[in-house]
Amino acid sequence: MYAKFSFLTILFSVLMMNNSAQANPLPLFVDDPHSCAKPEEAVIEHLQLQLDIDFQKKRIKGQAQYTIKTAMAANAFWLDTRGLEIIEVSLGEGQSTSYELMAEQPFLGRPLKINITPNTRVVNVRYQTTDEPGALQWLSQEQTQGGQLPFLFTQGQAVLSRTWMPVQDSPGIRFSWDATVKVPADFMALMSGTNPQEKNPEGTFSFRMDLPVPAYLIALAVGDLAFKPLGERCGVYAEPAMLERAASEFVDTEKMLIAAEKLYGTYQWGRYDLLVLPPSFPFGGMENPRLTFATPTIIAGDRSLTSLVAHELAHSWSGNLVTNATWNDFWLNEGFTVYFERRIMEALYGKDYAEMLAELGYQDVMKTIAGMGKDSQDTRLKLDLKGRDPDDGMNDIAYEKGYFLLCSIENLVGRAAFDDFLRKYFKEFAFKTIDTEQFVKYITRKLPAINSLQPALTQWIYQTGMPEHVKPPVSQRFRQTEQQLTDLLSGKMKLADLKTVEWTTHEWVHFIRHLPDTMDLSLAEQLDGAFKLSNATNAEIQAAWFEKLLPTSYTAINKPLDEFLVKVGRRKFVLPLFKGMAQNPARIDAAREIYRKARPGYHAVTAGSVDALFAQ
Ligand code: BES
Ligand code: ZN
User: Fold this and answer.
1) Which end of the chain is more exposed for a tag (fewer CB within 10 A), N or C?
2) How many Å lie between the centroid of ligand 2 and the Cα of residue 557?
3) Which of 154, 217, 274, 286 should be mutated for ligand 1, with most atoms under 8 A from CB?
4) pLDDT tens column, 99-128
């Protein structure tokens, strides 16, 4: 009965789709609560963008041309927009048509309904961005390293691409694209496609992405940028003042790429480059195809934060090649990527290195679960984000619980069988989207042993909290760190005798997290004296140190904390620091004062989260 039903469904869809007798089989779309697009009626196949970047007015003027595929009875083409001014809409070579910008919905914006006929192949929209905060961050020259030219970047995930272009903004809808971007002289423009390696005097840059991608993976950055190769297929872009440091930090990128291919199959995207953004970039990294966007806070000088590169690179398979159908299935992007990231790190730097990352990840997720309550619905892998801003429900559960699920499957079936499964999975679903239910069906078919997983796969996916008998990862290196800490606290070891020269960032973070909350502030002073933790040039160490001391009256952190929060806009640091300050009555006024100063420099994603914190 089931087989008959799905055969009829497919037959019906094939008949309904007007011009689909052609080569491509029709995708079936999963219903996405965060997009107004009706892809079963009319869906983008190719997008062509012409963008004019105006730094003075802080506006992008855009001309978008959509090549679409329509169903037999199609009479409307639906696009997501938010905070956009629609100037003109036409069909084909310029025939006029009517359109309607529908009512504003919270987080989702205003659906743009364009009237078409089943024969419409091409739709044109002229538009312009507005001041409404969204994907775009316009930075003044003072907010850059070089201080000479302003800077612009976009952040599309999860539902922000619609704030800089009208688009079918659902991870389940893929299309190819090309773009021409006009910028003032002296700027370089970069996108998540084919990229230039030099500026050009006309300030006109062309880009292409021939492989089909979802809208959240289209990205743009414009600034005073330069390029340095790292290997045959890899390179790094940064502001000139940052370029050498960035290149030295990321020397191993090509090795990571080779290790990744050896694990799970050929890299499909051609080049893999990195772009180091100014410090207001709201995330650690963003896996924009061919061009990962990265925060400068991972440039530690000792290459100890490059697991982030492994992570964004891994998304070239999990996420960019095989994509979560909706944001409710976010763990399929992130859980797989964390697993893959740690396998790359293990391949390059050994098991004991990867174990440190896993143990810190475990600490993070247990803290998140404790904070949300283990019965919170948002601690499930399969999320229910309908009616909410997806950004609110995306936390490290998807990353770390997802990772531990995949580890427990690996333990059950053995590494060789699991790797073999993953290679096939990436092949089978390449350039497709998948939801959690499809995944469960697929793995049950390919790895029947999954039926004896404890707890059951469905329990992992649909139940809250962390399954009880998950074995916490154990890092031998951290045991040594802890031994030194114990000896220090018991007086057996003197501060001067701590052996820290070999420590990576991870050992420092572990050490700081495990200092007793009730420690004598004279110990904090001594540690600060010996290791300059309040003024650490490593953002992870500095932030961990601040967090440890926020509940106390320790004043030596005050000034560096203030400077850190004004400079760095990475949400993962900023939010816990403001939270920590807000929880200490002696620091709450300072928190508000610092936020007043810092907020204008933050991207909307970070500002939105901190606003919500202070609104409580
Ligand atoms: N795709 C995410 C960033 C993201 C997630 C943006 C959800 C918007 C919504 C990216 O791959 C990521 O996971 N970044 C992490 C770093 C990583 C090493 C865990 C980050 O930014 O901290
Ligand atoms: Zn990720």
Assistant:
1) N
2) 31
3) 286
4) 999 999 999 999 999 999 999 999 999 999
